[in-house]
Amino acid sequence: MHFADALTQRSQNTAPICVGLDPNLSKLPDGITKDAAGVLSFSKGIIDAVKDIAVCVKPQMAYYEVLGWEGMKVFWESCAYAKEQGLLVIADGKRNDIGSTCDAYADAYLHEHSPIDALTVSPYLGSDGIKPFMERCAKNEKGIFVLVKTSNPSSGELQDLPCGDEVVHEHMAQLVESWATEHLGSASGFSCIGAVVGATYPEELTYLRTLMPHVPILIPGYGAQGGEAEDVRPGFVPNGTGAIVNSSRGIIFASSGNDWQEAASKAAHEMAEVITGLF
Amino acid sequence: MHFADALTQRSQNTAPICVGLDPNLSKLPDGITKDAAGVLSFSKGIIDAVKDIAVCVKPQMAYYEVLGWEGMKVFWESCAYAKEQGLLVIADGKRNDIGSTCDAYADAYLHEHSPIDALTVSPYLGSDGIKPFMERCAKNEKGIFVLVKTSNPSSGELQDLPCGDEVVHEHMAQLVESWATEHLGSASGFSCIGAVVGATYPEELTYLRTLMPHVPILIPGYGAQGGEAEDVRPGFVPNGTGAIVNSSRGIIFASSGNDWQEAASKAAHEMAEVITGLF
């Protein structure tokens, strides 16, 4: 199934929320070993805790890469496990390169049999750094989320630079929309080419939704980073589709005690209720 | 030793050239198996062939990542081997993230005992995506190269956008220079915070050299991508320091036959002669 159709269908059956797997060793709960085996146990435990309520999980590759190749092994095992449990998987790698190197990244993460459904990508290189990913999206029913306006305090240093009548992130949004319209899902009307727009900039989110009518928006920055429910509402279209809200720390580290799975499940269900309650 | 001092010292003892390790399976020479073991053999073989003439090797992470965790295992083994042979190692990963996730990338690649000396990073996120790397650079004598003006045809879509009296890549260059001046090497006068500027845009390289007087410039795009010796000259300061010119395919795939190591060595020596002949 086309990625945006799968995302939309599952978000209507569950809730349009994504749980970020950020297995920071220093924050793992009591009883989890601080190594690759512990990261795998923790990732699987969170997947089990949220699989009935989340659309997707978003493993943050840095926390796996920091454990070397053993970390990459458990990254792939975690992705495969999430897929087996019926979740969609967004690998948060912010990968970017050009030409045959970009082909290699696209083949690495978005190949036909990959357990990963979508990858985050960084757009500084222009369309040379995006098109190889788009080809795999079209061919293998995968997706990408292109960074447009990120949730962090300094995102404006580059992304808000004024260029003519607009700012850089608006220009980027128009590029993403132009790429997106080539690859629309027949059921959802959305593209497999998505965008990242942070919950911490609700005014920009409102405007960017209008600039990118065919683009599914992945919204980080909810919860621990300060974004609230009203802040994410403008990322959705009126029927409650078109966006996925991510929370990481607020769910996965809801408790550092032995009840971490129950606490994560409870936090995810509470978030789902808040977000679905917007519509 | 401070990264820029090490880079400058070694470039004066050899030649200011970097050999890109892009072990694209489809291009590996005859007799090399098309798997992770083959990629390790090939990487080591190229390292042996160029270790007496290059300043550094630049393993392109995508070609290792595409082989899954086995690929990451040989990536780390290749980096360690290059380090043992006396080469500096620039991991070309174009990593980027914010906050504690950026800390994880920085710890992954630039930790105290890492065989990697420097990492390429993408700047779309602003200084939140750079400062965690800078902290490790200062603490662990490592370096980064920030994408400023890349060598690919579409780099201008974002990087050349006019903003006020300048364009995006000029603004980015000024940011990089402002970060760089905090971390200068006492011997070379250059910073451990470097920039990537493509050989395919010599006019921009000329101007960017003046905008970033303390920034070592990694210049890709020489050779197979079309950049020539005269194009890279403006990246250097008059005494021939301040830049490193990278070639990948032109060296590592100089022959697809059994003489691939000799051919790579010959191509690297020829390139070194051309580049050192500029000064």
Describe this structure in words.
The structure is a homodimer of 279-residue chains. With 279 residues, chain A is α/β, with parallel strands linked by helices. Chain A has a single domain, classed as Aldolase class I (TIM Barrel, Alpha-Beta Barrel). Chain A has 12 helices and 10 strands. Chain A has helices at residues 3-13, 36-50, 61-65, 68-84, 99-110, 131-140, 156-159, 168-180, 202-211, 229-232, 249-252, 260-276; strands spanning 17-21, 56-59, 88-95, 118-121, 143-149, 162-163, 166-167, 193-197, 217-219, 243-247. Chain A has an 8-stranded parallel barrel with strand order 1-2-3-4-5-8-9-10, surrounded by 8 helices. In chain A, strands 6-7 form a two-stranded antiparallel sheet. In chain A, strand 8, helix 9 and strand 9 form a beta-alpha-beta unit. In chain A, helix 2 runs parallel beside helix 4 (68-84), helix 2 packs across helix 12 (260-276) and helix 5 packs parallel to helix 6. The first copy, chain A, starts with a helix and ends with a helix. Chains A and B meet through helix 3, helix 4, helix 5, helix 7 and strand 6 of A and helix 3, helix 4, helix 5, helix 7 and strand 6 of B.
Task: Tag the structure with descriptive keywords.
two-stranded antiparallel sheet, TIM Barrel, 44% helix, 10 strands, alpha/beta, 8-stranded parallel barrel
Side-by-side strand order of the widest sheet of chain A: 1-2-3-4-5-8-9-10
Estimate what percentage of residues of chain A fall within beta strands: 15-25%
Total of helices of chain A: 12
* Terminal Cα span of chain A: 26 Å
The whole-angstrom Rg of chain A is 17 Å
Taken together, the total number of domains of chain A comes to 1
Q: Please, what is the CATH homologous superfamily of chain A?
A: Aldolase class I
